[in-house]
Task: structure prediction
Amino acid sequence: MEIGFLETLKTQPLWVIVLFLLGSLSILKISVSILTWVYVNFLRPPKNIKKYGSWALVTGSTDGIGKAFAFELAKKGLNLILVGRNPKKLEDVSSEIQSKFSKTQIKNVIFDLTGDLSEGIKKITEAIEGLDVGVLINNAGISYPYARFFHEVDDELLNNLIKVNVEATTKVTQAVLPAMLKRKRGAIVNIGSGAAIVIPSDPLYAVYAATKAYIDQFSRCLYVEYKNSGIDVQCQVPLYVATKMASIKRSSFFVPSPTGYAKAGLRWLGHDPRCTAYWPHSVIWALLNSLPEFAVDSWRLGFCLQIRKRGQLKDSRKKE
Result:
């Protein structure tokens, strides 16, 4: 039968053969992509993160994704350096973690990333001195209170977006990386955003999206620079997660809880320079990539205008 098929194919015009070959290659490419997606999301084993070192440093560790990462890292047997601006919240999170994982050693670093960066980095440098810090989770970040046009972004918000999302992430990495380089092992995870990568644009969140685009490129460059030195650098690109920053209270299938995201995030740690760790988010990414950019831009603009309208209404009620 196979011989008959080949003989039949030979009798066809050249253009039919070319179309057949192109179609076969397309099917093969799609099949490989689907099988790869299934493998990396469901079958690929996670790395043993303890091989990187016995300590992990997490910024923005008192709420949301950062707090969830801290718990998951403690569950994996790592000691923690928790960075946050609120002393009471840091103590509460530390106590909560140690009540569940009594063997976990925890150091708290009080550091307001919108404040004096030099002083904060000095505190981190002192805290990690002599410790085998193998994992860095650069999670701390800020967004807009709600969607707004660029000309409506005040100076304080503009400065804080750049200071926290760009400068602080860069400086914390600069403080932790040299010791990893000496030990020739380490993992750095920078939390990016779908606002910069998944969708073609994020209107009414321009500065936030731009700072997260920096994080993506920064991570990719470091990945290439240090991959031969035993250091894995990765930018994780989540879509919506049920956090205070996203103003989402309830989780769902497409909007994971911080814990759900952190579990997925650790499974991807050490694999690939960029990832969408929570697999339903990758389905949304594929769908958005299949649509024309102008259509996604139009949808996103309308969506963000509604967020802006609700935010302005809430502000006006507060003033009354």
